[in-house]
Amino acid sequence: MNLSFIDISIVLSYLVLTLFIGFWLSKRASKDLQAYFLGGNSIKWYFLGLSNASGMFDISGTMWTVTIVFVYGLKSAWIPWLWPVWNQIFVMVFLAIWMRRSNTMTGAQWITFRFGDGRGGRLSHIIVVLFAVVSVVGFIAYFVEGIGKFATTFFTWDLSTTLFGLYLTSEQVYALIIIGITTLYTMKGGMYSVVSTEVLQFLIMTVACISVGIIAYNKVTPEQLSAVIPDGWTDFWPEWKLDLDWSKIFPELNDKIGADGYEMFGMLLMMMILKGIFASLAGPVPSYDMQRILSTRTPAEAAKMSGLTSLVLFIPRYLMIGGFAVLGLVYLKPELMKMGADIDFEMVLPLAIRQFVPVGIKGLMLAGLLAAFMGTFAAFINAAPAYLVNDLYKKYLNPGASNKILVRYSYLSSLLLVIIGLVFGLFASSLNSLTLWITSSLYGGYAAANVLKWIWWRFNGMGYFYGMLGGLVASVIVPPLVRMFAPGAIDIYMYPIVLLISMGASVLGTLFSKQEDMEILKNFYKQTKPWGFWKPVKEAVMKEDPTFLPNEDFKRDMFNVLVGVSWQMSMVVLPLFFLSGAYDKAWISLGVLMGTSVLLKFFWYDHIKNIK
């Protein structure tokens, strides 16, 4: 792609500005660990919300989402439930409040707050640190490949070179440059730098997203779109068996649908809901989302921050995603067909940028997509060093370390993790695949133990450790065993097996070990105030303090979750309906958005405003 001087200047100006912000904020961040990793709990909740939204706006995910809208049409809005995308609603409604009440710095430190510092608590603490560190290394390796491909798509300079006797392709050199800049400003400025640059990045991305939506609306008419899509492409509601036949328009897309394994759409949706409920109740994994929650000033602000993330993220993002998808369908089929048998549908996004985005906006778009990568990457490398420094070095090796030493070690641990991730991503593709496999396995085994930690008083540190370990082992062993008997089975269908094994390990590990000390349980329950199966602990707390008010909000929280999922879904489909010409459905979506917003105002926002 030949970029104009204006576009290149916009991208370079953005990179210089992010470095300036990181160094400018370095003095505030180096005060102590609380300032470095949590911004001293002084950052406004709305800045954290914008930052969190920016961190969820990654390049690879955006390219993938453009592809599924291109292929599956409006039903693609359900496919991100694989994560699930609505876990943020559970966090917004009640989990952010529970988590922020802990007053801890990391997810591993929270484990000590919940289970104490005995054998079970320490084993659980260590496995959470392991989870966090391995996850970050895996994601860094993943980002190395993604950002390199992105950069070489748009920047045509040949930067291939030899470094320390190793030949590096242009793709790898671009990755090193961008990751180096991101690491430098994140290391210097800590959470202050991450949030400040991500707010800037979010503003850039929002302008870019709206611009793409306007371009698509002006260039694609409903008649043009209907001529290049099969029957059912604009249907939103799921059906048991996917009924999209591309054979007369774009036969290769039928092959992709078969390869994705999404034909039995109703069964897929049921599995996504099952996984989604447990994954959402488990709460945020020990990563950037959790760090934002712990960085807020109060529990109420933690909830508002999480709600703002959904409010500002989905409409702009899906304006861009829908815009690129409809532009690709109407105009890019010849370009894609030139690829022959090896069509890469993820090229829809870069091809559309090259063909349709004008000078100036193109530079802004590239800066925005670069910002999306840098924001997500920065969030990960800010979160993980806290586990190494605070949860390993300070806790086990040097409890009396000064703030200066701890911040210095935070710099070093950030650098170390990035270097390890780069080694995996650049020079050992098989190890990179293994790292991502382990990361996926860790995520697969995360849900059961992390649901029980909130809702069951008897659940202890040993149960947590064995539940996480059982889930990890099951996630590694179950998929290859299932594929021996059912070749082509996708991971989501194996989730119930992994969940049952992890749940069994959690319960057995708990029942065959002694309960946690009642004082630890009372302290956790009184400070966090969760609902669930806490009767013995609740009675003990109320015996000591008859004025204590237990959490009776389960029914209201579940109502707010259902309303919140509908609210979020309306923001996903509204831009898609609008850009595909389904204006009647767009008006209905807007009505749902307004109605659910009113319900959340009265039943959620008014309730959490004064929560402490």
Helix and strand topology:
Blueprint: H1 5-24, H2 26-29, H3 33-38, H4 45-55, H5 59-72, H6 87-100, H7 107-115, H8 119-154, E1 161-163, E2 166-168, H9 170-219, H10 222-226, H11 252-260, H12 265-282, H13 288-295, H14 299-331, H15 333-337, H16 348-356, H17 361-397, H18 403-427, H19 429-444, H20 447-455, H21 461-485, H22 495-511, H23 518-528, H24 535-544, H25 554-579, H26 583-608
Antiparallel strand pairs: 1-2
Helix pairs in contact: 1-9, 1-17, 4-9, 4-13, 4-14, 5-14, 6-12, 6-14, 6-25, 7-8, 8-9, 8-17, 8-18, 8-19, 8-21, 9-14, 9-17, 9-18, 12-20, 13-14, 14-16, 14-25, 17-18, 18-19, 19-21, 20-21, 20-22, 21-22, 23-24, 25-26
Can you put this structure into words, describing what you see?
The chain is mostly helical. The protein is 74% helix and 1% strand. The chain contains 26 helices and 2 strands. The chain has helices spanning 5-24, 26-29, 33-38, 45-55, 59-72, 87-100, 107-115, 119-154, 170-219, 222-226, 252-260, 265-282, 288-295, 299-331, 333-337, 348-356, 361-397, 403-427, 429-444, 447-455, 461-485, 495-511, 518-528, 535-544, 554-579, 583-608; strands at 161-163, 166-168. The chain has a two-stranded antiparallel sheet with strand order 1-2. A hairpin with a 2-residue loop joins strand 1 and strand 2 (166-168). The longest helix has 50 residues, at 170-219.
